């Protein structure tokens, strides 16, 4: 009898272990940021959390660029930076660049994007550096999301107050910065509707699966998707560009392991300024369309778009290649389409 009871207890323990393990796997992506922290972690988060967006803004820096030359670095908390030799004029086009977690405006991709925006778009480029907060744990950064958003909104409202026109405005955000770009745009709207917003593999953990209408963030919002593990599964932008394999993985991850499918998104976006990334005119058989598929003209390419074509909206599938610059030629694209 005693042996039988012990055997039942062992089976029950194994069953509970299997249930717990299965549940842990199912909730790994989203559960980490939603679970109740232990007392020590809770106290740590509370002690770190800035009290207001103004405390956050004091830690942020603004990097101004004209003609791909850094003209000024200033505290985001000082409202007189526009009078301190930034070289930016209210009559200029202006672009806002927002980096991600454990990144800054000094990252290689940030500087490369500023270079391409300066060459193709012109005007003033402003990279908002919040690396003091972004260098901490993702959990700490996530708890400050509303404060960082509010601080960036205040910065853009200061630009508007000084004569800058959102109709000439553009905003780019990568990963966590992509979620910020959308939140900032939605906070400014509808009174100040940003002309165009592009995001690259907008962060998913902590934000999904909550449905957000990212199309409300700007007049033209296009979002590039590249990974299944770090990117969002909310596809509500005017355009959702699914890179590589259904927007979930990039073939080039095999040769760029240090970047991963997530990090490759911003490299692909920057390369698209100079190399054609052609879209398929049908949904690949292995992919699922979660949004209407865009009707695209022949030889349509994706990337930064100065004059947004309102006729092209929905999901767009863009295969990518194994090696730099990660695009496929028209011939390769036709061969790929023929195999499907």
TrEMBL record:
Any Pfam family the entry gives: Lipase
SUPFAM superfamilies: alpha/beta-Hydrolases
Major subcellular site: secreted
InterPro entries linked to this entry: AB_hydrolase_fold, Lipase, TAG_lipase
Signal sequence bounds: 1-24
Domain Lipase: residue ranges: 42-209
Gene3D superfamilies cross-referenced by the UniProt entry: alpha/beta hydrolase
One term under GO cellular component: extracellular space
Molecular functions (GO terms): lipase activity; serine hydrolase activity
Keyword Signal appears in the UniProt entry: yes
Subcellular location: Secreted
Domain of life (superkingdom): Eukaryota
Keywords annotated in UniProt: Secreted, Signal
GO biological process: lipid catabolic process
Family: Belongs to the AB hydrolase superfamily. Lipase family.
This protein's name: Lipase domain-containing protein
Lineage start: Eukaryota, Metazoa, Ecdysozoa, Arthropoda, Hexapoda
